[in-house]
Amino acid sequence: MTNSSRPLAVFDLDNTLAxxxxxxxxxxxxxRDWGGFFAAAPQDPPLAEGVALALKSAEECEVVYLTGRPxxxxxxxxxxxxxxxxxxxxxxxxxxxxxxxxxxxxxxxLRELARGRQIRMLVDDDELVCQDARRAGFRVVHADWAxxxxxxxxAQEREGRT
Length: 162
Hints:
Structural class: alpha/beta
Number of strands: 5
Largest sheet: 5 strands, parallel
Helix content: 25-40%
């Protein structure tokens, strides 16, 4: 089976594969420190449940990554994935200046991917992303293995930053 005919397994990063708990403090102040938040991402420990699911998925699927992180974080993100032994795959990131809610940007990319390929599943921690993806007919695995962060949830929905 060629790579282009394999179904896609789509994985979020923050709080799905990467534990962001150590950098949440950057988002808790009234004036969020986005530079600090994203600069600390290379130190994220991996989340064992998410990594195991990505590795298992790679047996039958092409793994791709769909994150709300801004495109300027691409090098750090790709290096982090490689350093933690995750499957190689395309990384879809938020375009510069796009501050729409994660559920909007991610659903748009999922629909685009689905035009050419079967999507076996989306794995994401954001409940609103999961709800909208399910409504659109995608199979969703809610990544509920990380400690939820109210600050990150607010940022994903209201500020469109991750």
